[in-house]
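Tokens as discussed.
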């Protein structure tokens, strides 16, 4: 069964870039992209994914809201948050970490680091579900 990753960022150029890079580095995975939090939530709840990679700052739903709603639906779904900010004025990362978030990656990306994070999280999910 193909593992599926959902990338969520309101910046279309970032989702396109990440999709291309991850398809090249992780060809065994299916990469899905959304540019709105509410559309992403719909994918999570209806299509099923194996990992969520989401930005923290989006106009319709911030990363914390998407994280918490995702965890209500599937508490074991791995989530990686990405941010371009060194400073988190809305404390989205802090609130998410307090709620159980483990992984945050900063833009610009080290694609090798991101690829390793994704592999590790998906592997842990597969081990837990077997």
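Sequence:
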């Amino acid at each position: 069964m193909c593992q599926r990753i959902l990338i969520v960022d309101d910046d279309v150029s970032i989702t396109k870039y990440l999709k291309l890079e991850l398809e090249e580095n992780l060809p065994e995975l299916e990469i899905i992209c959304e540019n709105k939090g509410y559309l992403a939530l719909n994918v999570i709840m209806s299509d099923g994914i194996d990992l969520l990679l989401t930005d923290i700052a989006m106009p319709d739903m911030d990363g914390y809201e998407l994280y918490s709603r995702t965890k209500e639906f599937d508490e074991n779904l791995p989530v990686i948050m990405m941010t371009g900010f060194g400073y988190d004025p809305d404390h989205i990362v802090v609130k998410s970490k307090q709620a159980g978030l483990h992984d945050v990656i900063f833009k610009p990306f080290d694609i090798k680091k991101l690829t390793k994070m994704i592999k590790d999280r998906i592997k842990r999910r597969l081990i837990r579900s077997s």
